[in-house]
Amino acid sequence: MKCLLFGLVVFLVPLLIKGEFPDCETTFLEQGQTSCIDNTDGIQHDLDSTWINSQCYKCHCSSVGMTCCDTIVPPNNPNPKLCTVQYDYDTCQARVVNRDDPSLPC
User: Fold this and answer.
1) Per-residue pLDDT at 45 exceeds 70
2) What is the pLDDT of residues 49-59, one digit of tens each?
3) What is the H or E stretch that residue 22 is in?
4) What is 2-70's CATH topology?
5) Distance CA 34, CA 82 (A)
6) Among the listed ranges 8-22, 31-45, 62-76, which one has the minimum average pLDDT value?
7) Which InterPro entries is this protein grouped with (predicted)?
8) What are phi and psi of 28, to 5 degrees?
9) Terminus-to-terminus CA distance in the chain, angstroms?
10) How far apart are CA 20 and CA 69, in angstroms?
11) Which CATH number fits domain 72-106: 3.40.50.2300, 2.50.20.10, 2.20.25.590, 3.40.50.300?
12) Tally of CB atoms within 10 A around 96
């Protein structure tokens, strides 16, 4: 029952906050585990901690498990043949740029 409730909270709370379906993943802790390891960076985090990893996923470690949700909302790409989405993991932002010359916006 505790896992079901946690799953509902993990799924519904981001929807209410962002108003859309974020890219989230949950890893449940095995019995006796006292920390979480970020699957992206391999860094160990204490229970009840929150962080943003190198791929801009906001993660939270709880006694039930670790949930990580993408913080970058991909922009609408009006013309996929001419444009592409460029991700900046230093600023956790994305923008649509010209496919042939990424220095130009699209």
Assistant:
1) yes
2) 999 999 999 99
3) none
4) Complement Module; domain 1 (2.10.70)
5) 49
6) 8-22
7) PSP94
8) -85, 140
9) 48
10) 12
11) 2.20.25.590
12) 19
Q: Distance between CA 59 and CA 38 in Å, rounded?
A: 8
Q: What is the per-residue pLDDT for 8?
A: 45
CA distance 17 to 104: 32
Pairing mode, strands 83-88 and 93-98? antiparallel
Confidence of residue 78 (pLDDT cuts 50, 70, 90): confident
Would you say the CATH fold of 72-106 matches that of 2-70?
Answer: no
Q: What is the pLDDT of residue 74?
A: 86
- In whole angstroms, how far apart are CA 62 and each of 34, 75, 102? 9, 31, 40
State both tokens at 10. 């993990």
Mean pLDDT of 14-37: 78
